[in-house]
């Protein structure tokens, strides 16, 4: 099992460690998932997400006029435009963008954030469980492009600092103002150069930090010392589910296209990315099933795999610490995906009633 | 969360359940889960007890406890009929973490075969199964 550069920090803090996608990761600290969750909602939490991978693609001047038409900047942009569902040419230098990576059938291989960190140099953050296959996919399609493609997973520790006080806490050790939401910039934090990204996976404001692994343990300790509460994967999951962010392997898979997953907003079929054809068809005809968010009407917790009476399946389920109710996401027949529809979920043999809710289930400031 | 303990006055099932024989009516036992079980589960957020009158069978699951992360079956250490359930756990399931042998009790059972208790472990033998 692989360990992140912050492994010793977690052990010292008394974290409960579990295997996740081949990594030994903290699932919770002694305070417990509920306290960690509320720390992020009300103050500031810090997560070790160094298990996530990074793929760097760089390369300038584009030759092929046909490719220039869809992506005027450079070769790196053109390769990513072919691979990623969103319009990569819209990412400014220092900008960030969410997209999905699809196969020819429009099935989802991964969901990713991509940053243009410098002109013609892009960093794409992958899910740990998909990193190796993503890398192989990138490489297998890079043939016609004059790009440099590098696996950077070993070169970065990744820390997510999230919550209403997150920016204040990170700003206090930064040499310059932090980048705004959905942008990224290099900053000196506590004496070391860090790529600061205005992104996250909790529904709160905050930043994600890509740091030198050698510097990461001291950076973590400094931020904890300043009030960031260590949070594990369990709280990361309850937070993202309240915010209705997809988790690959649960809510996204090869068998689902981005339209039924509610990710049509990050698909730009006009850029002719791999999978654009089937996705265009799905958008035109409308998918037979849609991913909805639900809240249980009574007690109980629905879990991944629980079937829905009359068709459909729960893909993520947990107890929401903020709503104090069972929540989740499920694929249901499109005609039953409307907000307010009552679903009957078979929770291990017991039928529990749930209502389709607006996404997100939790919204900052009410 | 409670400190690790395995009280001497309880009987233990290797699936991490305990039984406390009622000192007055020895055909009745209170059942719960051990410190080890609640620690492995993490913070308990939901427990729905079976209805009084339900029959439970030694070594078979009779209820579920849920943490944020996982669902875990609760195995009956003894057979019998449920005569009382801990209604307070509906509002405060975390009592199972805070006080697994006290406020965190799950159900009371009228035993159908009191001799089954001979197959259960004492605190030392149970602790030994945990390697401590």
What are the defining features of this structure?
heterodimer, A: 366 residues, alpha+beta, Gyrase A, domain 2, Alpha-Beta Plaits, Elongation Factor Tu (Ef-tu), domain 3, six-stranded mixed β-sheet, five-stranded antiparallel β-sheet, 9 helices, 21% helix, globular, B: 132 residues, OB fold (Dihydrolipoamide Acetyltransferase, E2P), six-stranded antiparallel β-sheet, three-stranded antiparallel β-sheet, 3 helices, 14% helix
Account of the 3D structure:
The complex is a heterodimer of chains A (366) and B (132). Chain A has 366 residues and is an alpha+beta fold. In chain A, 21% of the residues lie in helices and 32% in strands. Chain A folds into 3 domains: 2-49 and 156-242, 2-Layer Sandwich (Gyrase A, domain 2), CATH 3.30.1360.120; 54-137, Alpha-Beta Plaits, CATH 3.30.70.1400; 288-366, Aminomethyltransferase beta-barrel domains (Elongation Factor Tu (Ef-tu), domain 3), CATH 2.40.30.110. Chain A is built from 9 helices and 19 strands. A 6-stranded mixed β-sheet of chain A has the order 11-12-13-10-4-14. A 5-stranded antiparallel β-sheet of chain A has the order 6-7-8-5-9, covered by helices on one side. In chain A, a hairpin with a 4-residue loop joins β16 and β17 (325-333). In chain A, α2 crosses α8. Chain A is globular. Chain A starts with a strand and ends in a 9-residue tail after the last strand. The relative contact order of chain A is 0.15. The model of chain A has no long low-confidence stretch (mean pLDDT 95). Chain B is α+β, with helices and mostly antiparallel strands and 132 residues long. Chain B has one domain (11-129): OB fold (Dihydrolipoamide Acetyltransferase, E2P). In chain B, β2 and β3 (28-33) form a beta hairpin. Classes of the chains: A alpha+beta (366), B alpha+beta (132). At the A-B interface, α8 of A face β6 of B.
């Amino acid at each position: 099992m692989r360990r992140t550069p912050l492994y010793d920090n977690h052990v010292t803090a008394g974290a409960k460690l579990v295997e996740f996608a081949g990594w030994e990761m903290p699932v919770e600290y002694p305070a417990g998932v509920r306290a960690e969750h509320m720390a992020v909602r009300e103050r500031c939490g810090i997560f070790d997400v160094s298990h996530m991978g990074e793929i760097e693609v760089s390369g300038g001047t584009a030759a092929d006029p046909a490719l220039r038409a869809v992506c005027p900047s450079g070769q790196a942009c053109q390769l990513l435009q072919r691979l990623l569902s969103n319009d990569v040419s819209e990412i400014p230098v220092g900008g960030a963008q969410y997209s999905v990576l699809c196969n020819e059938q429009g099935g989802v291989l991964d969901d990713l954030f991509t940053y243009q960190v410098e002109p013609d140099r892009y960093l794409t953050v992958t899910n740990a469980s998909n990193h190796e296959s993503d890398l192989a996919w990138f490489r297998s399609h890079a043939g016609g492009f004059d790009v440099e493609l590098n696996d950077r997973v070993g070169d970065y520790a990744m820390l997510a600092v999230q919550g209403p006080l997150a920016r204040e806490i990170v700003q206090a050790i930064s040499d310059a103002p932090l980048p705004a939401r959905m942008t990224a910039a290099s900053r000196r934090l506590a004496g070391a150069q860090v790529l600061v990204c205005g992104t996250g996976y909790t529904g709160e404001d905050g930043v994600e930090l890509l740091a030198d692994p050698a510097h990461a343990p001291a950076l973590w300790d400094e931020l904890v010392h300043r009030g960031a509460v260590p949070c594990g994967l369990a709280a990361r999951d309850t937070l993202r589910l309240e915010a209705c962010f997809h988790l690959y392997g649960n809510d996204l898979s090869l068998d689902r296209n981005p339209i039924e997953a509610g990710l049509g907003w990050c698909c730009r079929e006009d850029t002719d990315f791999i999978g654009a054809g089937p996705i265009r068809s799905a958008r035109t005809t409308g998918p037979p099933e849609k991913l909805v968010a639900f809240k249980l009407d009574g007690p109980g917790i629905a879990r991944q795999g629980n079937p829905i009476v009359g068709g459909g399946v729960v893909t993520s389920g947990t107890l929401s610490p903020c709503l104090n109710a069972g929540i989740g996401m499920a694929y249901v027949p499109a005609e039953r995906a409307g907000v307010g529809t009552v679903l009957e979920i078979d929770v291990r043999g017991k039928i529990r009633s749930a209502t389709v809710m607006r996404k997100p289930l939790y919204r900052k400031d009410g | 969360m409670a400190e690790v303990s395995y009280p001497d006055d309880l009987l233990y099932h290797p699936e991490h359940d305990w039984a406390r024989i009622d000192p007055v009516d020895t055909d009745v036992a209170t059942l719960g889960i051990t410190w080890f079980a609640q620690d492995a589960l993490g913070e308990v957020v939901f427990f729905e007890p079976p209805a009084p009158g339900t029959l439970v069978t030694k070594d078979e699951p009779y209820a579920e406890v849920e943490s944020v992360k996982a669902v875990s079956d609760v195995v009956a250490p003894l057979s019998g009929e449920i005569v009382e359930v801990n209604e307070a756990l509906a509002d405060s399931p975390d009592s199972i973490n805070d006080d697994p042998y006290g406020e965190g009790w799950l159900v009371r059972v009228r035993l159908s075969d009191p001799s089954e208790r001979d197959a259960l472990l004492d605190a030392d033998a149970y602790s030994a199964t945990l390697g401590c």
